[in-house]
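Structure (tokenized):
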């Protein structure tokens, strides 16, 4: 008889994001090994009500499918919302941790909730960095594992469309002809290091090097963000982290106004993103070490690599699991402007050598990161608990 598992997730399509993709691909992959039951937030009701109704739905699911042998929760916040499971059932409950969901710097969270998270049956961390953060907080070494995220290999099969050059010219007024292009993606939050890169690296690069930033960037503050300004700094910052606000937004806008060779494209379609990654000569993740705010992995680096673009990234946090120095990218000291400037000039000075590195990086990423490899890692762990 096929084993049965229940997956509970509040990060799932139709919503778009790294955690949503990981959750979807994991559940899809697990379906080849188990009979998978799903409780997922898909946006068809208020999210607060979804969480409020979740205990009843879980009880109904376990009543209707009494052969469920394991429950998986998609992240630490899901783990906090489901602590009642520790009293309600003896079925093993495994939680995936992504980084900030275990390091969030709120005293109540760290002192009162994290110890309770450690009492779940097991933990799967998306990077060794995240695993070490769990262990530092008292998690059991024998039931805390690392399984890296994967990446969609089909990204490599999307042909390059040269009309992206015309689109940049027509839609954004950016002429990339005879230029060398650096690309970054993500929300403007402090840990991403975007304003630092704009201020300390871009002014020292050759004039024919363009920096294109992709991702959401609101020019105006929301009412709630303005209200947060009335709250003391440390508390406001923690609320910014909790709510996912753009903590680097103002500085990024200020620096963009000073740089003639740096542009922010805002959100772009998935199709255009793939073309922009292929157009780029380099993809950068200039992250900084910010207390409590961490990069749990680095899925965007793998996506860039699969598009044949060499990656430069800060050697911090979980990024070092995704970017392997000298294999699919180069790791550089966080906040060391000279190291970044010199490496960028070195790589862009030899087009043939960079092309070779990019192709080698693409193949390394293909061989070592996939949703199949990730799923198999989870299956091995799940079976340990089921077979007990």
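Design, position by position:
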């Amino acid at each position: 008889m096929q084993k049965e598992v229940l997956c509970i997730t509040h990060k799932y399509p139709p919503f778009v994001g790294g955690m949503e993709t990981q959750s979807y691909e994991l559940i899809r992959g697990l379906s080849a090994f188990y009979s998978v039951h799903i409780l997922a937030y898909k946006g068809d009701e208020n999210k607060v009500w979804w969480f409020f109704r979740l205990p009843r739905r879980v009880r109904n699911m376990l009543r209707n499918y009494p052969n469920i042998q394991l429950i998986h929760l998609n992240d630490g916040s899901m783990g906090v919302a489901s602590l009642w499971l520790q009293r309600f059932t003896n079925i093993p409950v495994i939680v995936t941790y992504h980084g900030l969901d275990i390091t969030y710097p709120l005293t109540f969270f760290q002192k009162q909730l994290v110890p309770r998270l450690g009492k779940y049956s097991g933990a799967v961390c998306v990077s060794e960095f995240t695993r070490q953060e769990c262990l530092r907080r008292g998690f059991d070494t024998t039931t805390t594992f690392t399984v890296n995220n994967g990446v969609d290999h089909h990204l490599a099969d999307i042909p390059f469309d040269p009309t992206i050059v015309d689109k940049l010219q027509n839609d954004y007024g950016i002429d990339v002809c005879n230029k060398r292009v650096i690309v970054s993606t993500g929300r403007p939050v402090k840990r991403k290091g975007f304003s630092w890169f704009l201020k300390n690296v871009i002014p020292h690069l050759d004039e024919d090097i363009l920096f294109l930033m992709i991702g959401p960037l609101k020019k105006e503050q929301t009412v709630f963000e303005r209200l947060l300004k009335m709250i003391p700094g440390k508390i406001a910052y923690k609320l910014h982290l909790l709510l996912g606000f753009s903590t680097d937004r103002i500085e990024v806008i200020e620096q963009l106004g000073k740089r003639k060779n740096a542009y922010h494209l805002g959100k772009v379609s998935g199709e255009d993103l793939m073309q922009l990654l292929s157009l780029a000569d380099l993809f950068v993740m200039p992250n900084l070490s910010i207390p409590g705010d961490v990069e749990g992995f680095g899925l965007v680096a793998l996506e860039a690599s699969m598009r044949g673009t060499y990656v430069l990234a800060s050697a911090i946090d979980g990024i070092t699991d995704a970017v392997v120095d000298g294999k699919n990218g180069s790791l550089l000291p966080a906040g060391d402007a000279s190291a970044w400037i010199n490496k960028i000039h070195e790589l862009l000075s030899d087009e043939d050598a960079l092309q070779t590195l990019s192709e080698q990086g693409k193949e390394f990423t293909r061989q070592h990161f996939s949703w199949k490899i990730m799923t198999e890692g989870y299956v091995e762990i799940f079976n340990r608990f089921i077979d007990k």
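Reviewer-requested clarification: The first helix runs from residue 18 to 30. The chain has 18 helices and twelve strands.
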